[in-house]
Structures are given as C-alpha cells and as structure tokens.
Amino acid sequence: MRVKQHTIKKQVTVSGVGLHTGVISNMTFLPAPPNHGYKFQRVDIEGMPIIDADVDNVVDVSRGTTLEQSGARVFTVEHVLAALVGLEIDNVLIQLDGPEPPIMDGSSIQFIEILDNAGLEEQNALRRFFEVPESITFRDASREVEMAALPLDNYRVTVMVDYNSPVLGSQHASITDISQFRNEIASCRTFCFLHELEMLYNQNLIKGGDLNNAIVVVDRVVEEKELEHLAKMFNKEKVEVRKEGILNNVELRYKNEPARHKLLDVVGDLALVGRPIKAQIMAARPGHAANVAFAKKIKRAMEKAGPSHIPHYDPKLPPVMDIAQISNILPHRYPFQLLDKIIYLDDTVVAGIKNVTINEPFFMGHFPANPVMPGVLQVEAMAQTGGILVLSTVDDPENYWTYFLGIENCKFRKMVVPGDTLVFKCELLAPIRRGIAKMKGEAYVGNTLVCEAVMTASIVRKES
C-alpha cells in the first residue's frame, strides 16, 4: 500500500446517464490538497454545495448509497469511491452537474481508466491509515448478513454471496492486496434478479438502467409475453434468455462476477469511513444497508482511537523530511537542532517530531534530579517546525534566515519528560505577506496537548 497521500495531476471528466435517476450528467474529478479526502460538489445547484463522502451523510441505501449534506444529494456513489480506493487516491473533488454519477457500464473500470489518464501525484503528507486494533463485527440476522474487520497490516477483502439461486448458487471473491482491485474487481458489473426489475421500476428506480450497464439474472421460466414487456421497458426491439439465465444473453466477465461486484460495493461503501483502512474485511451476503451500518461501526472505533485534528505519527512510515533534509533547510545545529522529522507538509500546515531523551544537553542543568524539558525549548522546537512551513514557500530556502518577531498566548499544559515524543503542528493563520508569517503552534504527547502558542516570524534573504 502507498505510504504517502496522492491526488490526480489534472482534472478529467466523464459523462453519462445515472442508473436510478436516468439524468445525464457530467462528472469532473479535480486535484485536491492533502487531507481533503473525497468530496462531491453539485455545481448545478445554487451555491454549489459540497457533500462530504462521509458515512454519517448517508440518507438512503435502496439499491445504492445516497449522500446528503446542506440540502444537496448525490445518488449511487459507491462505484466512483471504489475506483478511488482501488487506485489509492486520497484527495479529490468530484464535481457533478446532476444528481447522480454516470453508471457507465455498471462497474468501476471506466472511472479507473479516466483517472489513469489524469495521472497520480504524490503529496507531502503521509496517509493516515486506520489500523483496526481489534475485531469489529456487524450482524443482521434477518438478512443473514455477517461482516467483520480483523487486525491486519494490509487491506484484504473477502466476500461470499448466496441467493439460493440455481443460476448463481454460492459464490466467493477476494483480494489479498488493494493493488489487485484494478485487474480483478474493477470491471465487474452491477446485477439484479429478473423478479426485482418490475419492483425497482415501480419504485421509480433504474430509470437509467440498460442491459448494457447491468446484469439481469433470470432465475425462473420466462414466457414470451414477459420478454416483450421487458423489451418495451428497456426500449429494445427484442430481449431473450439462454439456459444459463442471463437476460439478453450478456456474457459474464467472470464466472463469479456478481460476487466480485459485491466486493466492489464493499470497498466503495467502506471508503465512507474517511480514511484508508488496514484490516482483513470479511463479508457474508453484504448489501448497501449492511455495508453502511458496518462502516459506521468502524468510524466510531476510529473516533474512539483519537481526535482527527492531532497529527498522526506512525514511526513505521518514512517521513516527509528526514534529518538530513531538515538540515539542508534550517541553519540550526547542536545543541539547538531540536527537530527530528517532518511527517506532514502542505501550503498551510506542517507537522514535525521531536524525540525527547535523557541525553539532551539541557537536562544536565535543568532540574537534573527531576528532568523536565524547558518550556522555552518546546517553543523553539515548535518554531523550527513552523520555519520549515515558511521556508517551503520559497524556491531556495537555503538562502533565507527565519527570525522570531513575536509570541502570543503561550501556554504550557503538561510537563514534557525524557521518553516523550513531541508531535508539533503549525498552521498559518493568514497568508504570508512581505515575508511575515503568523501561525498557531501546538505540541502533543500522544493525544494530550502539552504546549501551544501563536508565533510571528519573518523570513529574510541572507544577502539582506
């Protein structure tokens, strides 16, 4: 799995009819900054409202997953989200001039292809995986649905479906790594049973349904008169069925294509937890209602694990900047080189790491019998983190000095002692003007805020 966050290099557009609304729409994928996540935007509505791809925004799961926020809805989002997860794209804005993404051929493969055309761009931020700490389970006895997320240092998905159908029988599908999604899962199309068609049609759904974008499984004997009625429903001259039971003799891409498509739906719906997942996902007879209920349980576990505004530090992952790269930018040296790593960097936010050890020179004289890191050095380390952010705005940072101009509202919340790992976060409060930067700095040990301050700094070219 990729370690750093990714977006796309350029905007790309696909067009087509929505499966359930029958409305033709244009859908444009646009690059987005780190930690943006997946967001939809209805550009056809006044104010162009944003709808976050968040499981708490799900309002309907009848034959697809529908999101609503700020009074705006987007229908059937799961195939688009599955493509983004399958390509390990973290940040993208999806603009729509209609209520529903195009169904295309009923799978994710055409979204994969258009995103490939856009190209991927690595970003200066580590992916914030949610590593499932212990088993999370969901069960719906009335539908015989069981789902589980088990701890694993990867993302694997296994799905079983069983419809008591002589045509489908019991089917399984699985991937052992998300990189397999493109070739093994993405091209698998949505499906339904013949006996469901009339019900869906009468419920004002599948207005954009076509025998080219869905597999219709025929699990009973069909009279000629009914075939004529179906032809009229789908605006076809004629529809027919072979013994294997697929309407209009559509050829399956895989023998277990329905199970593979259910896996696709699981991947798309679980994207709504808001972060890439590391877990073994196992699902028996899943559907959108179960997927969403399961995703909510995962999100609640994720929220319990810690606040999302605190920078996440995983020492197993490579940094955005190591000590050698930091030394090339900042002029500080022993004993005032206080920053060890940069783990996040974008246009307005930076996060850095300081490992506090008993070997720090200041512990020799600062309460040697009760070693506590001096508050002034916590602020200095936080300022050095902010210096990386400010210097990243110029092309040749090695030719600039950074100077403190002011510190406001500085508070020390808890003592920092040897063995602690300080996580610093600095965020610009306003755009940098005339070389002057004002930023809010915070320092954490674990999920505990230990220090905070508002800092003003100036960057000055060395010749000056």
Automatic annotation (TrEMBL):
Superkingdom in the source lineage: Bacteria
Matches recorded under CDD domains: FabZ
Coiled coil: none
EC number: 4.2.1.59, 3.5.1.108
Keyword Nucleotide-binding belongs to the record: no
Matching SUPFAM superfamilies: Ribosomal protein S5 domain 2-like, Thioesterase/thiol ester dehydrase-isomerase
Name of one Pfam family that matches: FabA
UniProt xrefs under InterPro entries: FabA_FabZ, FabZ, HotDog_dom_sf, Ribosomal_Su5_D2-typ_SF, UDP-acyl_GlcNac_deAcase, UDP-acyl_GlcNac_deAcase_C, UDP-acyl_N-AcGlcN_deAcase_N
Cofactors, names only: Zn(2+)
Residues annotated for Zn(2+) binding in this entry: 79, 261, 265
Pathway(s) per entry: Glycolipid biosynthesis; lipid IV(A) biosynthesis; lipid IV(A) from (3R)-3-hydroxytetradecanoyl-[acyl-carrier-protein] and UDP-N-acetyl-alpha-D-glucosamine: step 2/6
Catalytic activity: a (3R)-hydroxyacyl-[ACP] = a (2E)-enoyl-[ACP] + H2O; a UDP-3-O-[(3R)-3-hydroxyacyl]-N-acetyl-alpha-D-glucosamine + H2O = a UDP-3-O-[(3R)-3-hydroxyacyl]-alpha-D-glucosamine + acetate
Catalytic-site annotation from UniProt: 288 (proton donor), 366
Keywords: Cytoplasm, Hydrolase, Lipid A biosynthesis, Lipid biosynthesis, Lipid metabolism, Lyase, Metal-binding, Zinc
Subcellular location: Cytoplasm
A GO biological process held by the record: lipid A biosynthetic process
Transmembrane recorded as keyword: no
Known function: Catalyzes the hydrolysis of UDP-3-O-myristoyl-N-acetylglucosamine to form UDP-3-O-myristoylglucosamine and acetate, the committed step in lipid A biosynthesis.
Family to which the UniProt record says this protein belongs: Belongs to the LpxC family.
Name under which the protein is recorded: Multifunctional fusion protein
Organism of this sequence: Belliella baltica (strain DSM 15883 / CIP 108006 / LMG 21964 / BA134)
